[in-house]
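Sequence and fold
=================
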Amino acid sequence: MDITTTKSKLHTYIDRADQPFLRIVEVMFEQYFKEQNQSTEDREAQLIRQIQTEWNPIARQRFHELTQKRQDEIITTDEYNELLELVDEMENYTAQRTLYVTELAKLRGVSARELMTELSLK
């Protein structure tokens, strides 16, 4: 139920009953919805910040270097193991980011794809 519907219902009751008491109830509902909206807005802002946080640029650069070495078939065993660790790190980053996108899309009532388009995400 949104604030407009709640206010409308409360005004109907106020017109028929004890005005001071119902006015207190109305103010309480307004405060509750204000807090809920603020909480949602705060969470949305937090999720946007988390979504827009890039994967560690040093790790990204190293990943590209090692990937190139692997493609050129000049990668050492130690470098290959490092590459595997970076792949795991990148996958974890991507999975977490996907969860943030999904949560934000749910809060906004849109699909994840729509949200990604809106935020210009790949």
Observations:
- Helices lie at 3-16, 19-52, 57-71, 77-108, 112-118.
- The longest helix spans residues 19-52.
- The chain is about 85% helix and 0% strand.
- Residues 105 and 112 are 5 Å apart (CA to CA).
